[in-house]
Design brief:
- The protein is of the alpha+beta class and about 210 residues long.
- Helix content is about 20%, strand content about 35%.
- The chain has three domains: about 25-60 and about 100-125, Phosphorylase Kinase, domain 1; about 60-100, no CATH class; about 145-210, HIT family, subunit A, CATH 3.30.428.10.
- It has a four-stranded antiparallel sheet, with helices on one face.
- The N and C termini lie far apart (about 55 Å).
- This is m7GpppX diphosphatase.
- Belongs to the HIT family.
- Its EC number is 3.6.1.59.
- InterPro entries: DcpS/DCS2 (IPR008594), HIT-like_sf (IPR036265), Scavenger_mRNA_decap_enz_N (IPR011145).
């Protein structure tokens, strides 16, 4: 299975142009999926280099909520009949291209940490004490931490500048408030923002249990 698609040109953190071609990758395996969220995590191999892998995160975008968009969908869609029974028809609706997009995140090159993060695995709820955090959780976080380059790019206005809503430059108590990529940029009911503090060294915020 191969994936062939061209992405519009964008700009990297250093303001250089970047172009992504999905034709450079081929399907490897499904790492996991969430039917409720309508999201899937797909592992890809580079076509010419199997040692270069990528994680593709695909997620259905929310439905539009305004009358104009729905009039466009209804008048320009195509239908495939699955079954009918009395007044009920079970159909597959194919919307116009404008509404057929799938929200996608590409992590390339990905590491084993990324693959493990998105692979289906058992989840546990643990009652963690302060001593547990210091002796177990914190060392694990420090050893397995992902790169923070994307965070510093945002804090230093090297990337996603157009997504910043508020910026307090104070090094001790300041933070940046930015639109998260989880938001489709349209439906305010699904608005999702990300707050990133400027103070370095904080791994988590929690109320310790002794």
């Amino acid at each position: 299975m191969s994936i062939s698609a061209e992405a519009d040109e964008g700009k990297n953190a250093d303001n250089t142009k970047v172009s992504i071609s999905m034709g450079d990758f081929k399907f490897k395996e499904i790492l996991g999926e969430d039917a409720a969220r309508k999201v899937a995590f797909v592992l890809l191999d580079a076509v010419n280099d199997c040692s270069n892998q990528a994680v593709l995160i695909v997620e259905k975008t929310p439905f539009p909520v305004n009358e104009e968009d729905w009039n466009t969908i209804v008048s320009n869609c195509s239908l495939k009949i699955v079954s009918t029974n009395d007044i009920y028809s079970n159909l597959t609706l194919f919307p116009p291209e404008k509404f057929a997009g799938i929200k996608t995140t590409l992590i390339n090159p990905c590491t084993e940490k990324h693959i493990l993060k998105y692979r289906d695995q058992k989840r546990y709820v643990i009652h963690e004490t302060w001593d547990d955090y210091k002796s177990i959780t914190l060392p694990y976080l420090e050893e397995h931490q992902f790169t923070l380059k994307w965070i510093f790019n945002l804090l230093e206005h090297k990337a996603e500048v157009d997504r910043v809503i508020f910026d307090d430059p104070d090094r001790q108590n300041g933070f940046v408030l930015a639109l998260d990529i989880k938001w489709d940029g349209k439906n305010l009911a699904n608005l999702y923002v990300l707050a990133i503090i400027r103070r370095k060294g904080i791994k988590s915020i929690r109320r310790p249990v002794y």
